Amino acid sequence: xxxxxxxHRGASSHHHIxxxxxxxxxxxMAIKLKQSGENDFVVYEREGGVGGTWxxxxxxxxxxxxxxxxxSFSFEPNPNWSRMFAPQPEIRGYLEHCAEKYxxxxxxxxxxxxxxxxxxxDQSLWHIEDAQGHxxxxxxxVSGMGGLSTPAYPKLKGLETFKGEMFHxxxxxxxxxxxxxxxxxxxxxxxxxQFVPKIQPDVAHLDLYQxxxxxxxxxxxxxxxxxxxxxxxxxxxxxxxxxxLIYMMLESRVLGFSISxxxxxxxxxxxxxxxxKQVEDPALRRTVTPDYTIGxxxxxxxxxxxxxxxxxxxxxxxxxxREIRDHSVITEDGTERPVDAIIFGTGFQAADxxxxxxxxxxxxxxxxxxxxxxxxxxxxTSVAGFPNLFFLMGPNTGLGxxxxxxxxxxxxxxxxxxxxxxxxxxxxxxxxxxDAQKRFNNRIQSKLGGTVWNIGGCQSWYLHPVSGKNVxxxxxxxxxxxxxxxxxxxxxxxxxxxxxxxxxxxxxxKTRKPVTLKHRESTSA
Length: 525
Ligand code: NAP
What we know:
Elements: E1 13-20, H1 24-35, E2 41-44, H2 53-56, H3 88-101, E3 108-109, E4 114-120, E5 125-130, E6 135-143, E7 165-168, E8 182-186, H4 192-199, E9 205-209, E10 216-217, H5 226-234, H6 236-251, H7 254-259, H8 264-278, H9 282-288, E11 300-301, H10 305-309, E12 314-317, E13 321-325, E14 328-331, E15 336-338, E16 341-344, E17 359-360, H11 367-370, E18 389-391, H12 404-424, E19 427-432, H13 434-448, H14 452-455, H15 478-485, E20 493-497, H16 498-508
Parallel strand pairs: 1-2, 1-6, 2-3, 4-17, 6-18, 7-16, 8-9, 8-16, 9-12, 10-11
Antiparallel strand pairs: 4-5, 5-6, 13-14, 14-15, 19-20
Helix pairs in contact: 1-12, 5-6, 12-15
Bound molecules: NADP nicotinamide-adenine-dinucleotide phosphate.
NADP nicotinamide-adenine-dinucleotide phosphate (NAP) binds near residues 154 and 298.
């Protein structure tokens, strides 16, 4: 990629809008800003290039588990996907292409990790500080940080004394040669089931530490032929048709997840058949068969995971880990297993995506103090007490059944409409009302009550570790979310006019209380 590094380092700077993160959310937001004529914005990115999760995750076998014709921007179809489920390098390449094509590079500040955001009520703007201590300000902040960016490590006795190699799936060390090594993999989630089959042929021995067996379905993957690619290029309507079909197929799954979990029994039968087809050993079959309702945790898809576990050099270890020693893992049954490397497939801190001490809203309140019971936002986007701040992929926008890019595009439309209103009405700040946020979340939580995620008999990262609330998932059809975010519903917000503030400021020097405007812009509830 061409050098995207900022020319403006050092001096404190102001932008109308600051976007944090350059994955699907951040880039999508930036593209829509640009298309709406907004140029006074900056995109802060912690890494050395764009792509977000599709840049940092590069473990062997990393690929999307949603079909690529759907898992891509609706306005930027890619006829060149090589497979139905594109591998990570292609998705990263696609996002880099978007950044270049939509002329975002001059806006992007790489290697810039934002450490703090502080709302300044007097000036109605956000003070932003990065990890190097550079300061800037923005009237509006859009967070595209995503919930799956901070790796979670297990707390294991003696881990710090381990003398071998250790890394998390998200920080794969490609310089470490696994060939001929004894490897422990901890975790059997979405990432592990992708990299285990890739490393199994190389390693001398693999101990796979499984705490909870995942439900796995066959992966309907295949190459996209050159003829199909040519047809998609020549007749984009064909690819649009494929996208629509995939969307409808995935969307129908919400019936089982959310409306009638009994439907999941059918999916469970298919998954059991998958085990029986791919695993001959009855003991291994028992080990990999989950004991909770399918869908309670993310349903995984793979054609090569079970066959890898059945190989002679693999042991699926279900005894818990008691401690780690210099060169071995000791399990609860007292067995010592020698090991050269430990790979953590232990996921992310999804239920607490923003660390304490990062975001301070009105009155200096730490976002985490507003989120004692777990993250909560209005329409997954706005949080009371945190004006002019929008979260993309915020609380309860995650999906177990469809493409996140669809949710992201819905939120981007909502934020774009909010910004349009702010410009039109000359608003200095907007802030969601607490009562609107509460009502919205009560509805969401009551809807989540009967879903397989809440009553499926498992522990998952969808649920907040302290409150047990499902703070991650959207419990309904995704088109309903789109309906609700199609227009910015100003009735749910406090709007502060710049004009009112200017008048008051000339009279009294400064004012603190926002002034609520009457308006007639709202169209959705
Ligand atoms: P994950 O699904 O959360 O899986 C973590 C695994 O580590 C689980 O098997 C968990 O066991 C285990 N684990 C965690 N702490 C442990 C401990 N202390 N001791 C033993 N085992 C422990 O994490 P992930 O596989 O990285 O995936 C996270 C999410 O990323 C996915 O759900 C998905 O949304 C996303 N993802 C998507 C793709 C894609 O293709 N689109 C690919 C990879 C990841 P328990 O089940 O018992 O907790």
